Amino acid sequence: MPLEDPVPMLHAEGLTKRYGRREALSDVDLRVPAGRVVGLVGPNGAGKSTLLNLACGLLEPTSGSLRVLGSRPAASAAHLAKVGFVAQNTPVYPSFSVADHLRLGARLNPSWDQGLAERRIGQVGLNPNQKAGRLSGGQRAQLALTVAAAKRPELLIFDEPAAALDPLARQGFLANLMEFVAELGASAVLSSHLLGDIEQVCDYLIVLCDSRVQVAGDVRDLLARHHRLAAPGGGPGPLPAGVEVVREEHGGAVVRTGLPASELPFRAGPVTLEELVLAYMSRAGAPAAQVREGAR
Question: Where is each ABC transporter domain found (predicted)?
């Protein structure tokens, strides 16, 4: 008998979310396989936080559907236990000590792994008696990450968790994130403005812009299917069937195709992840400043 496809991490069909008259997500179709570390990229206002809050069950769709690990988000206490969420600015309780956070986690989560939590707190040098309000930004991020991971979830979701950290603290946070993913055998979604973070840890990419998914897929596959054409004297002109122009620019274009570079007209070269993201964001009409911001 043929093996059944594994249950996807995220599966959206016609997913739409409106705030009054403003549409934050519009008719999103998305199927993300399990076991991936997903980078969610887009400019401010693209709908990234809305998508993640829907995935955590903090919001309800206006229309369409979203299933997370095969179920409606937050459908039950058991499903809630499968998802660990670190929101923007890595919120913690300022008046609680580090140890208080671990005690609270143990009370709220039936699958809580106290040994994992204490080990990780020790590894990153957090004092269990220290009030969270007196921790540095990097330390607060590590505490929030530890609390989310000690639930032993199947999916970890991060909404811009490291944007405010200095480079050293951000590097430490990302390294620990990947250690948790490996130790737990978990999937992860990381929303970030910092494309360097996405390149460092993610193997799957979603570009969200203008409330819609512009492109999604395995990073290596996306890079293999996109090329930069150098066309002397202006745009690329007529192209073979099966070649889609993503972004036309002076002297060439970024294109998507299943053809090998050797079969393309003009001189075809590889694209970087930043060039790919910028091409799709530009095509969606993102303002120039936000295009640059979204890729950093």
Answer: 10-235
pTM confidence score: 0.88
150: left (phi over 0), alpha (psi -120 to 50) or beta: alpha
Residues in the chain: 296
Same domain, 111 and 248: no
| Domain edge (last residue) among 198, 215, 232 | 215
Nearest by Cα to 236 from 223, 222, 255:
255
Query: Count of alpha carbons within 13 Å of 145, Cβ hemisphere only?
Result: 29
Q: What are phi and psi of 88, to 5 degrees?
A: -55, 145
User: Residue 72 domain-assigned?
Assistant: yes
Whether 2 is in a domain gets the answer no
pLDDT in tens, 96-119: 999 999 999 999 998 999 999 999
Range of the domain at 284: 219-294
What distance in Å separates the CA atoms of residue 79 and residue 55, rounded to the nearest whole number?
11
Which among 39, 14, 23 has a CA at the least distance from the CA of 276? 39
Cβ(146)–Cβ(117) below 8 Å: yes
- Per-residue pLDDT of 185-194, as tens digits, reads 999 999 987 8
Is residue 269 situated within a structural domain?
yes
* Integer Cα distance of 156 and 52 in angstroms: 11
Assigned domain for 4 exists: no
